[in-house]
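MODEL INPUT / OUTPUT PAIR
PAIR INDEX: 1
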Amino acid sequence: MTRFKSLILTAAIFTTTAAYAAPSIGTSAAVRGDVFVTTTGTKRVAKVRDSIRLQDQVLTKDDSALQILLVDRTTFTVGQNANLTITKFIYDPTQDSGELAARVTKGAFRFMSGNIGKANPTNASVSTPSATIGIRGTFFEGIVGIDAIALADLAGLNTVGADQQAASIVILRGPGKSRNTIDRPGSIVISNSGGSRQIAQPGYAVFVASAGATPSAPFKLTMEMQDYLDFFLRSAPNGPPVNPTGLTGTGSQGSGQLDIQIPIDPIDDFVDDGITDPNVPEDVDIVVTPPFTGGP
């Protein structure tokens, strides 16, 4: 299990007073390439150990990635050409209780549940332009936009009429760190006005072609699709850019997601009943001043 020590983040009580920035809710644990964070209209270059605040907008460019470690030890990783905002974060570390919501409008992302997902498995969600993903204490990945369509094509799904801006694929990859028991297995629920689907078995995915489109039935993730995801969701590059799948569809031509560098270390190592991410620095500790509230 990843150890956390040394870096201290103190979260202050959230205030809506315009004169003060929103409190820090986490830190940049790993940065690759050109990553920018916008806080209350001010854009800056992301650096390792920088604070991440509520409502910060994260933007990544080509061949870039960012990994965020929140104060409850939730981990977000975003790949290149992505857009992420954490819209709600309420956390009381004395009870490990809280609520978390985020929005991804483009690109690839990975979510690993932290303490909020453990104590409040129905209080965490991620929204995309086409659906909302309810998180039940687990580890999943997603792609929004043209690459989701390319991945759906790779799976043999019908992508006629799919929205190149809103289309999403969501994949359950496994239990989160120390999150699953026989009584409460991890799962995700993908829903919109067209219906909902639950994924309870790791290695299965759901495709949503557009806002309001009925989510597809869960389908099994192939090794080729898994390689596609792993290719641009890791944060430590090594070697020249390559295309691991040889996919030449619209997605690879349109966004360049397949031209990212292969890293030296795998991210999906299983430890005990959970999954740890070796790209999170070993010397990061999270100390929070309770309670913490932020968001609508």
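PAIR INDEX: 2
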Amino acid sequence: MVDGRHSQHEFHLYEWPENEMTEILDVAFELVERRVRRRFGLEVWFLAARLKQINDAPRVMRDRMAGQRIRRLSGFTERVAEWVRQQWQGGKASYTKGGPPTLMATCFAVLSEECIGTLSAWPQQRRQSVISFLKSQQSVADGLFATASVRREDCDQTSHCDPEYIRLQLTYFSLTALHALQEVPSHPLAFARRFLNPSFALGWVDGGPWDNPWNQSNRVMFLLRFLIHLATKEGEDAAWLVYDRLLDYLLERQNQETGLWHGASHASVREGVFAAYHFFPFFFWRGRAVPHPERIIDSVLSIQHADGLFGEQQGGGACEDLDAIDTLVKFSLVTEHRATEVRNALIRALDRLLLLQNPDGGFPDQPLQASDLQRSLRRRVADGLGVTKVLNRPFLLPRTHYSGWQTMGAAKGESTMWAAWFRPLAIRLILARNPDLSESPIPGCFHSLPGLGWHNPMPSGTSA
């Protein structure tokens, strides 16, 4: 590692600090020699002899890994909090360091601070400044948020990431952030009143892009949250009928073999896990049983990668990893099915998540992979000799866009506000289920309404 982070050597998928590598080797090897070699970069080689007798090596290894885990957990929320603090610009926050402040990033910053425990300590003046900004983004006419900032040309894949999707998402997160601040919007959600008609709501859901159930599940999540707001804040009791009808609709379409939703395209188990996560909290919060909990756990365990994470590829993603971790945590509370495997899977995920924290205190949405760092021989020679001027263009890391929206871009491996909420949230969930993995509880809390960030440590039972 270089200064605690990946050296960007293209053949190194994983790296460890020297002291941790030595601890790992000491379990079964006697260190004979340590060599430092310089070619196109710094290389450290260990020459070791296998011990003839290994005394209780598995236990020693577990103890040392536990020690490393405790060290990484110590102060990790404070480091995240400092990174988040640096992205605030008055009552607004940026998605990445040095980026422009946006409504979406501001919502993520509020929810990150709720999760890690700093939101409750905000002075009233700061709280009011953020609340004023959030409320100023709402349209008086229809109740949607930041509609003027959404353009079709800024969407990567307009078939699924369309302006309506982004507007609904902005409104969802604005509601959630205001709730975390113990506030409500200034104006009614006029656009959502059409969903009080059960036939319209069911038709809207049924006619959505179920060829991509992962994407469609987000739209359903937005709608369920809007219905909760209409019922609890605008006095529309009819919203509960629609809410329950939507849950019935979902149960009628649940796959009995996987416990998930695969849509018209018969999406993969992995995509089904990512979709189902957006539904489950609304069942648990309402006290509704979710059938096939054992199949759900089987499905999630089947998609874990060797690195402990759950994304489409090794290295994970802030959203995908949370989807799987939250589902394992919730359903392990209602069934003992494969309990040891679930615990081990969560521990593996925790250890990997802690390694993802960047030196600046933030977390990446998607960490760098070896394939992202591949460079030509010409570039490696030029980099090694310090003569990069001979190259036609600089080496650039791949970029990702949150939710396919170009205004929310970041280089792979770069700390983002989305990850500053979702990575600590995933860690909090694992520790809530396995408190023995930490020496003391981490500060902060879960969100109090269903959707992203919500968790009840004593969920309602499920039916087989």
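PAIR 2 NOTE: The first strand starts at residue 29 and ends at 38.
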